Amino acid sequence: MNHQIKFCKHINMFTINRPRESCHFASDFCFKNCYHAKMENLYARYKEEADKKEEAYWHQITGEQIATFLSTKRTRPTDRFRLMSRGEALTNKRDIWRVYDICMNNLDTLFMLPTKAWRSHRMMEYMKDILSNCPNLRLLFSTDPDIWSEALKVIGAHMPHPLIARMTLTYFGTDEFPADLEVFKCPKTWDKGTLVTCATCQTGCFIEDRDRLKIIHFRKH
Length: 221
Ligand code: SF4
Prior knowledge:
There is one protein chain. The chain is of the alpha/beta class. It has one domain. The protein has 9 helices and 8 strands. Strand 4, helix 6 and strand 5 (137-143) form a beta-alpha-beta unit. Helix 4 runs parallel beside helix 5 and helix 5 packs parallel to helix 6 (121-131). The model has no long low-confidence stretch (mean pLDDT 92). Residues 186-188, 196, 198, 201, 204-206, 216 line the site of iron/sulfur cluster (SF4). Iron/sulfur cluster binds at residues 186-188, 196, 198, 201, 204-206, 216.
């Protein structure tokens, strides 16, 4: 099977995608404001085929395959990788083990994984049990105005925990942040002239901080 790993220029990282049907835990806000909808409408006639290929690829991918792929790349950054730029990587326990395998076979690469799987109590428990052992995984617990309070409750109930130390809470929805908390504004989305990309960002999603809850605010777009 041909690989479906793409290089995404605007974040300067390799990425794997899945169809939007994998977004099992999306909020209503997320469905209404999905940043991929516009693109998918533009390429509607290719969507079905692309979706099938990406989903089939995800189901057979192993950490070793990704290691082999990355080992051949000389001119593009391989120390950071995104799972995923479209769709949800974590829909069930098998996905969690797949991500574990990917991380543990590629310890020189940091994996950024935005997810709303924290909305499922069962998935949260699996993540804590399995993914806490991956030192190179950076989970982004994705939130928006619909589920911001829900996220705070979930995190409060599970802290402190090693998984939460490597997790960042991300907020997207309005330019106004909904609480009086210390927030890092994502330079890529707030500063139009910035040269920072996710591959070079030093203070955002990739840092690990065991002492405080990291929150990143993405600008409305
Ligand atoms: S905070 Fe940094 S790493 Fe996170 S999305 Fe923004 S630019 Fe990328």
